[in-house]
Amino acid sequence: MVDFLPSRNARFTIPNCLLSHSEVDQIRKSKEIDESLSREKTFAEKKVILLLGAGESGKSTFLKQMRIIHGQDFDQRAKEEFRDTIYSNVIKGIRVLVDAREKLHIPWGDPDNLVHGETVMAFDTSSSMMAKGMVETKVFMNFLPSIRALWQDSGIQNAYDRRREFQLGEPVKYFLDNVDKLGELDYLPTQKDILLARKPTKGIYEYDFETENVPFKMVDLGGQRSERKRWFECFYGITSILFLVSSSEYDQVLMEDRQTNRLSESLNIFETIVNHRVFADVSIILFLNKTDLLEEKVEKVSIKDYFPEFTGDPHKLLDVQTFLVECFRNKCQAHWRELPYHHFTTAINTENIRLVFRDVKDTILYDNLNSYHHCIGY
């Protein structure tokens, strides 16, 4: 006769009739503790947040803010890389303005600046550094006198005032206004400079951080049309989606086709995301970003010229913001989808993002906890 010994991990259920009342009570309490620990472990798992939205909506800026807010400042090497990105932004920006001045038939303020215009238009954009969206300091310094002269020309300033008619990065004016600072030999970008530095996101960027003992992973995905196919690689196992919209772009068109209204593009993307079954249990939070630029724009440009259905005062910020919120809420057609939370944000304002993310974090954790309670029948 062979005795079979139980394996170390074998589990046996002892009939209650063979146990005393105190032993049964101990087993019950132990089981409750195990279940509680299991729930806490699940709840403490990393919260994965996707940043979605069209190009130029502010996703990368928001990710930079997360790094700043959670104490991971940019080191010397990172600042040097951002400096090269800023130099690239400036050269690309001034070239766009020179080209736009000519196409819009705006005369030079000073005809002598024609030479400076030819100088910057002769810049070699095919270099490997430019392909990475970067320009070395020594190269930038060679073009600095021409950049300075061109930005002071009234013809270039007039072209800038008509920037709605062509594609120009929003931070260009800030950097051109501070071009003397950029030309200092020991220049390193400040936090504001870094937040405004623009390099299109290609691929997937992640940032891990922890707040109040809860781990988060934030994922930034490129918003240009060519990058959106990558979104589907990240559509599973996520906790929440932050959908960013550039609220000030209601009068602008996409860089990709130069025809589609940028706000309409954001509305179409949002409609696809918010009604997709794969996100049925995912909280979606809407960030109507670039409030500072929207406030400036409503004073000059009527949203009614681009969205005739608008019925409020086109020069009143609150009326325009209310309209924008309703536009996005009207895209929520799925019967199981609650209307998303929304926030008006300015991604380059660290304090604004700090306060907004505090509310977002509480919303995410609250929704997450409710979903667990629902799953276990609370």
List keywords for this structure.
378 residues; alpha/beta; Rossmann fold; GI Alpha 1, domain 2-like; six-stranded mixed β-sheet; 6 strands; 46% helix; disordered N terminus; disordered C terminus
CATH superfamily of the largest domain: P-loop containing nucleotide triphosphate hydrolases
Hey, roughly how much beta strand do the residues contain? 5-15%
Q: In whole angstroms, how far apart are the ends?
A: 51 Å
- Give me the secondary-structure category: alpha/beta
**CATH A-level architecture of the largest domain:** 3-Layer(aba) Sandwich
What does this structure look like?
The protein has 378 residues and is an alpha/beta fold. The chain has 2 domains: 187 residues, Rossmann fold (3-Layer(aba) Sandwich), CATH 3.40.50.300; 121 residues, Orthogonal Bundle (GI Alpha 1, domain 2-like), CATH 1.10.400. Helix content is 46%, strand content 11%. The chain has 14 helices and 6 strands. Strands 2-3-1-4-5-6 form a 6-stranded mixed β-sheet, with helices on both faces. A hairpin with a 2-residue loop joins β2 and β3. α3 packs parallel to α6, α3 packs across α7 and α4 runs antiparallel to α6. The longest helix has 28 residues. The two termini are 51 Å apart. 31% of the residues are buried. The N terminus and C terminus are likely disordered.
Compact description:
46% of the residues lie in helices and 11% in strands.
